[in-house]
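Chain A, query sequence.
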Amino acid sequence: MVSEDGRWLAANAGHWAQRPELKLISSAPGQPARVLTQSHDPAWAEVDRLRPERFSFRNRHGDNIPAYVFKPSGWQASDRRPAVVYTYGGPLNDRHSVETDSFQPTGYLFAMYMAVRHGYVMVTVDPRGHSNYGRRFAGANWEQPGQPQSEDLEDLHRYMAANLGVDPARVGLNGWSFGGFQTQYTMYTKPDLFAAGIAGAGPTEWENYNSWYSGRTIGPVDRKKPVLRKYSLLPLAKGLKKPLLLVHGMLDPNVLYQDTVNVYRALMEAGKQPLVDLFLDPDGEHAMGGAVKTVGWHRKYEAFWLQQLGRAQP
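Chain A, predicted structure.
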């Protein structure tokens, strides 16, 4: 907001290194900005242990794919550390997962924790399909949901092995909602790429999902015909080769819990029992929050990654 005389600008601005606050900025040369609010809990400083680094890489099609990485203390490019990639890859209004004031619980806070506590390299990425990167980038899902993102994730995996000091045999994949779909799609169609996956609340049968979303993201919708069934994950599930944890709130009104039940059934019918586990919140909705709180499900994630990917060497 700018004053009528143009002398003052009020803005809510911040980034990873400086938390967003309302600031009053003068047009007069040399006059420092005044911070008008103090809205952040001082206790944050006790857990704000590490800052990520922004980076980008070129995918096989020449697109610039944005990401950030938490590098643990003592990190060197020659390391062979375990790593986890957090992805979304679908429309998300005007927000990115990778932005300077984003504190997404899994992609940022839990990633910081795993880097500090266990020495993991933790990456959050916005592959093609994510909104607000331009029409061609955001429209990549159309009539091929999952495919462009899995290509970008494969290219990211290669980049991480060459540049981020990770062991390519110990990289996990995690996502929620569309990212849960994307994690499953990649684990089923590129089964040797990631060592393990956690898929949260992912739509597995798009005809069960909202028309307004799938009709502008996945493909044409006709409620009289199962035109979206060809994008179902159920026929692909038999390709799974590595451990997969499926997570869902059983009262989810957005992505139906039945979607996870159906893909779980397909996995059982394909003989994947040794590879698949379920973690359910009996009272949880799309963001969980019932019997399973945020800390609880991330404790589950921590145990899963340590079991499947091991610990970093000191």
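The longest helix spans residues 147-163. The first strand starts at residue 8 and ends at 15.
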